[in-house]
Amino acid sequence: MKRSLMLICSMFLFPQLNAADSSATRGKIEEALGGSIREAAEIARDANRKPGEVLEFFGLEDDMKVLEISPATGYWSKFVGPTLCNNGGELVFSVSVSDDFKNDVMSLDGLDCTSAINDDRTLFDLPEFSFDDGQFDMVLTFWNLHNPDAQGRKNLNEAVFRSLKSGGIYGAVDHTRRHLQPTSREELQNGRRLDPVLVIKEMIDVGFEFVDFSPMHYHPEDALDKEVGTPGVRGNTDRWTLKFRKP
């Protein structure tokens, strides 16, 4: 009877504790978004990219060990890093991590808990490989999964799966392709997009559980018929935001 009562109590208590943790972390993310290491052009993108909402949706907590795939120019790194580094967490970068990024971003104040692994890999050439297995609480990738071919995505997603602890989260955002439309990158008119249903299937195939999606990046004005860099479309693409868990 006591055990049953404790179980019932935990069902109500743990979600509240997690919500409190998420709320506290969200405040730290917002503080980091106002950090001096961010440039004006990056801050201008916040209204469209909704970084605080994205990281809260994925469930980022400030003491996690997080892997960011292909950080590009460091838009996300510059506030995820301080959120983690100032609170006992750790941020690791991988795949296509340029020397410029290491010199110009990883050396910034507030990013003193960062490192890079498998940085010699590129999104366009992803054979079977591994990160540090079972080490991460969360893996994040933003506008990257459209770059590899299907086999490259499989190799990447399998490596991510192995790298996560049980219960770890894989969060991904990318540009939307119309459901069942061919995904060949040779179709330059509509390149750099991915069908979210295909992405969910590919994640489930490598062992992930699909947790949830968010419509926060829904852009009804995007007809999904132009390449994402097209003037008038760039910066205003419809994007899917998907959350997966390793069992």
Explain what this protein looks like in three dimensions.
- The structure is a single chain.
- With 247 residues, the chain is α/β, with parallel strands linked by helices.
- The chain has a single domain (45-245), classed as Vaccinia Virus protein VP39 (Rossmann fold), CATH 3.40.50.150.
- The protein has helices spanning 2-33, 40-44, 46-49, 51-58, 77-85, 99-104, 150-163, 196-205, and strands spanning 65-69, 90-94, 114-117, 136-142, 164-175, 209-214, 239-245.
- Strand 4, helix 7 (150-163) and strand 5 (164-175) form a beta-alpha-beta unit.
- Helix 1 packs antiparallel against helix 4 and helix 1 packs across helix 5.
- The protein is globular, with a radius of gyration of 18 Å.
- The model has no long low-confidence stretch (mean pLDDT 90).
Keyword list:
alpha/beta, 7-stranded mixed β-sheet, 247 residues, Rossmann fold, 8 helices
Distance between the termini: 29 Å
Report the mean per-residue pLDDT as an integer: 90
Task: Tell me the name of the CATH class.
Answer: Alpha Beta
Question: How many strands in all?
Answer: 7
Give the helix/strand class: alpha/beta
| Uncertain segments | none
CATH topology: Rossmann fold
Helicity level, as a percent range? 25-40%
The biggest beta sheet is recorded as: 7 strands, mixed
